[in-house]
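Good day; I would like, with your permission, to put a structural problem before you. What I wish to show you is a protein chain and, alongside it, a tokenised description of its three-dimensional fold. Thank you for your consideration; the sequence and its tokens are set out here:
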Amino acid sequence: MRTPRPLPEGLPSGPFTVDEGRNAGLAYRRLRAADLDRVGRGLYAVQEGGTDDGGRLLALARAVCAASPGAWVSHESAAALLGLPVPPHLGTGLPLHISKPRSLPQARRKGVVAHNVTSFPEEITLVHGVPVATAQRTFLDLARKLSLEDLVALGDHLIRLPRPELEGRSAPLTTLPALRALLARHSNLQGIRKARLSLDLMRVGADSVPETKLRLALVAAGLPEPQLQIPLRPWDRYSPSADAAYPASRVGVLYEGEHHLTPWQQSTDMERDAQYSEAGWILIKANRHDLRNRFARTVSRVRNALVRRGAMPGIGVVRPANETPHQDMP
């Protein structure tokens, strides 16, 4: 592939129009080179991050926001730029969603979904110099579109405690009180009822969307709500942990994603399983096949384990009101 000629020094560093390109000495055929992206009618930008959807999204966002004073990236496009967990069909962020204050005209451009909304300055941040709705505001903007389950999973991601050594931050993206305050500020927004309901279902401790959906499936099936990220030995910083657990009954539940298929991780998991077994725990593991089937098999196994441990009655068994559950502990 032929390397494109260097761009003229007089060309704007950001998005530029065809006329600006011509004035800088850029030939029309140069606009068709691989390092430039046509991000709107008569509007071009140097590709950022390659030709994949992420690079195209950022280039388009930069160009449209520069050409539309007061605009910012929002909704699923903001989720993509912020790296938030949303369903795959929303994950690319394209077409580009742009919001502007109600007092300004919509950003009407081909390939752009325009919104006019009520917002506040603290609800907008910068991503690579591009104005983007914050993670909290994006949660609210997507409340109307996401299912309740997916909205809870997104909320769990926002309030989870990060691992500083892996993520470079020690604080959560937001907190439940902050989200409640945001919802109170926008009480008439579409999806607000679903957003309020999701706050009651969110919990700190879910490290992935499947973990959230596993917890919701257990509770929806009538099982006790599990505790999250429970270490086998609380006093040991190197202790393995269960994604969800019933410590009093020594029943733990794990969701194993694709990274658990690597030889190193399988060896680590074998050692973890042995430690739980030696401590008298029943360890139940779920995977992507269980996720696809809404964890029906996992729910059944957890129920059976809790029945075995006396934590809940078996199907068809009615326990007297004054009977205290016993623990089948080794």
